[in-house]
Design brief:
It is a single chain. The chain has a four-stranded antiparallel sheet with strand order 2-3-1-4, covered by helices on one side. The protein is elongated and about 55 Å long. It has two domains: 41 residues, Winged helix-like DNA-binding domain superfamily/Winged helix DNA-binding domain (Arc Repressor Mutant, subunit A, Orthogonal Bundle), CATH 1.10.10.10; 78 residues, Lrp/AsnC effector binding domain/regulation of amino acid metabolism (RAM) domain (Alpha-Beta Plaits). It has five helices and four strands.
Amino acid sequence: MNETLSIDEIDRKIIGHLRRNGRSTNQQIAESLDLTAATVSGRIRRMEQSDKLNVVAVSDFAAHGMDVLIQIAVEVDGRASSDVAEELAALPEVFAVFLVTGRHNIDVLLALREYGELPELMIDKLSKVRGVRTMRPSIVLDVIKYQFESGPQVSGGGA
């Protein structure tokens, strides 16, 4: 649908509630905001259809045996950075790709089971993507903060 949608204070409160507990039922949200469950359901559906809201589950990498996180700075040459980024994003080990400014063109984030997978991945997959000029990997030593609910906040998100 993707129609233009104006987010009002009630929508912001619904979003705030979902940020705190994405498993909340429409009834629970409705009770906390003094609304009906049908109103909450309709507003959530409207925001989803307008691409203003996407409720997702986030899992812990370590819970899936992914104990190594790596950031790779990629310089591109001879091809559009966006095309290279799209091809890199298609690799199953890659969980995020960003077009960036600065000394390199693309940041790639990988999740691997063990360090031993890195050489093969870089030599046999990443370096074979046409347009990749250089790659500078950085191994994540410790995750200080990894919280999706800490992303961009919509003002008035309190319940």
